[in-house]
Amino acid sequence: MQGHRCHATFNLTLPLTFGNYPYNLDYALNSRQKRYSYAAFAQGKYQFADRLSATIGLRFNHDKFKSSNSTLFDIFGPTVFSETSESALTGKAELDFELSDRNMVYVSVSRGYKPGGVSNNSTPLLVPLTYKSEHVWSYELGAKNRFADGRVTLNAAAFFYDYKNLQYQMEDPVPYQGGVSNVPKTRIWGAEAEAVVQVTDNLKLDGNVTYLGGKLVGDYITLDPSRAHAATVAAAALGYGPFDAYTINLRAQQTRNTNGNLPPKLPKWQGSIGATHTLELGSLGTLRSHAELIYRGKFQYRIFNDGARDVVPSYTQVNANFTLTPQDSNLTIGLTLTNLFDNAGVASRYSNPFGSFTTSDMYIPPRQVIASVKYDF
User: Fold this and answer.
1) 254-to-231, 261, 313 alpha-carbon distances in Å
2) Strand 221-223 with 346-351, pairing
3) pTM for this entry
4) Which end of the chain is more exposed for a tag (fewer CB within 10 A), N or C?
5) If you write DSSP's letter for every residue of 193-257 in order, what string do you get?
6) Do the beta carbons of residue 111 and residue 162 sit within 8 Å?
7) pLDDT tens-digit profile of 111-127?
8) Cα–Cα distance measured from residue 205 to residue 273, given in angstroms and rounded to the nearest whole number
9) In terms of Cα–Cα distance, which of 134, 218, 124 is closest to 178?
10) Confidence band for 372, pLDDT divided at 50, 70 and 90
11) Measured between alpha carbons, how far is 101 from 237 in angstroms, rounded to an integer?
12) What is the CATH code of the structural domain delimited by 29-375?
């Protein structure tokens, strides 16, 4: 994210308009925001029979958001005041059935809520000054199991999320006037499984895997920042500045329909596998070793799915940890190695902060070797 300050010195004799706005004047924002949130919740469990029970929880939220915003080219006009106020009732209901003392299945339905608010803008053409709250209905079916006298644990679940008004960062034809808006309908589905196997008294294996899918449902036409930036560059080649009416009109035409696109930040596959070994070294003490392999698949980081531009690549990471606890001692010596092969994995991506159309890749930490000594009093 970049900070912006005013560097230009100039005299104005005409009313400030898009056509005569100084090109070399940087963006600045004066914003004051207050959020008030109140909540109350309760949860109860009812035992229908020895092996059948239900859990019900409810939560009431009231959120209020007040904001005043003015951008640099608004210093000659009034500050824009906006606010939102809303209440929401959310909760969860789950039914659990124990097949045996070590096996159970469950089904649940829940409703989640993210409050709306006010965007940090003041004179947008398309981006709303306020955005709606985001709601989701979540449905899940799963099982939890222990086998082989408890030496094997296996849990699995399938789920479906139905989102309404998914919040995302929207671009505006007027530079620096982007904000938060809402995709009307989004659906996400998937499945996950995790297992722990105690192979021997000294060796344990564990792992997990998750599959995710989804799509944006229905026609939703919105401004694509990538195309808007290309329009700004094209207008500049003709001699028009970013605040000229020609540029803004050209930017306003750079819309796309997101119907059927993948939701952002949704890797199709991800998971890990690990092994933990305990070695008795006699008088030297106990050596505990753990190694894990982590995989995170590629995903689309924007709702536009604009080819390779929007794809955050997959990465694989290997970590290891060793702990030596000397016999009859309060001392513990540790060695931790993360990202052992120093892979430049991209954890996430962010673009177009405040309309500047810069893109930042957030990488996973590089290889790290950390030694530690711990003494328990």
Assistant:
1) 8, 17, 26
2) unpaired
3) 0.85
4) C
5) EEEEEE-SSSEEEEEEEEEEEEEE-S--EEE-HHHHHHHHHHHHHTT--TTSHHHHHHHHT-EEE
6) no
7) 999 999 998 888 888 99
8) 8
9) 124
10) very high
11) 73
12) 2.40.170.20
Token pair 């306020």 is found at 130
Return the structure tokens found at 250. Answer: 């050209």
Structure tokens at 146: 């222990």
pLDDT at 17 over 70: no
Residue 62 to residue 90: CA distance in whole angstroms? 11
What does the alpha-carbon distance between residue 57 and residue 71 come to, in Å, rounded to a whole number?
44
The domain ranges of the chain are 29-375
Both tokens of residue 330? 């309060």
Dihedral of the alpha carbons of 322, 327, 328, 334, in degrees to the nearest 10:
-10
Alpha carbons 86 and 233: distance in angstroms, whole number: 41
Residue 91: name the closest of 62, 135, 113, 58 by CA. 58
